Amino acid sequence: MLLLTFSFSANSYAQFTEFHPELEWYTIKGEHVSVHFHAEAERSARVVAKIADEVWGPITSLYNYEPDEVHFVIKDIDDYSNGATYFFDNKIEIWTSALDFDLRGTHNWLRNVISHEFTHMVQLQASMKFSRNIPAIYFQVLNYEDVRRPDILYGFPNVVVSYPLAGINVPAWFAEGTAQYMRTEFNYDTWDSHRDMILRSYALDKNMLTWGQMGVFGKTSLGNESVYNSGFALTRYIAQKYGEDKLRRISEALSQIGNFTIDEAFMDVLGKNGEEIYDEWRNFVTTDYQNRSEKVLSNLAAGKIIADQGFANFYPTYIDNGNKLIYISNKTSDYFSQSSIYSVELKTNVEKKLVDNVRSTLNFLPDKNIIIYSKLSDDNPNWYNVHDIFKYDLTNQKETRLTFDKRANQPNVSHNGNEIVFLFEKDGTTNLGAVDIEGKNFRQITFFQNGEQVYNPKYSPDDSYIIFGYSNISSRDIARVDIDGNNFQILLSTENDERNPIFLDKDNLIISSNKTGIFNLYVYNINDKSYKQLTNVIGGAFMPDVNIKGDIVYAGYTSTGYKIFSINNNEQEKVIHGNNYVWSNNPPLNVNKPNGDIGKFDLNALKNYDDTQTPSYVKEKYGGAFSKLSFFPYIRYDNYTTSNTFLQKLKPGIIVSSNDMLNRYSLFAGGSINTVGERDLFLNFNFRNKLPGLYQLGMKPELTLELYNVTRKSDLNVYFGADTIGNTVNYDFIVPTDVTYNLFEVDIAAKQNIISRFQSLEFRFIWSRYSATLSSFLLPNNALYPTTNDTYFIGRNLQLTYSYNNIKPSVNSDINPIGLEYELNYSYEFNKFNPDGKYIVEGGILQPAFDNFNFSKFEFNSKLHMPLSDNQTLTFKARGVTILGPAQPDFFDSYVGGLLGMRPYPFYAISGNEMAWLNVTYRLPLLTNIDSRWNQLYFDKIFVSVFADIGNAWDSGFPSIKDFKKGAGAELRVMMNSFYIFPTALFVSAAYGFDKFTTTVRDQQITYGKEWWFYGGISFGFDF
Question: By residue range, what is the domain housing residue 942?
Answer without folding.
Answer: 820-826+856-1024
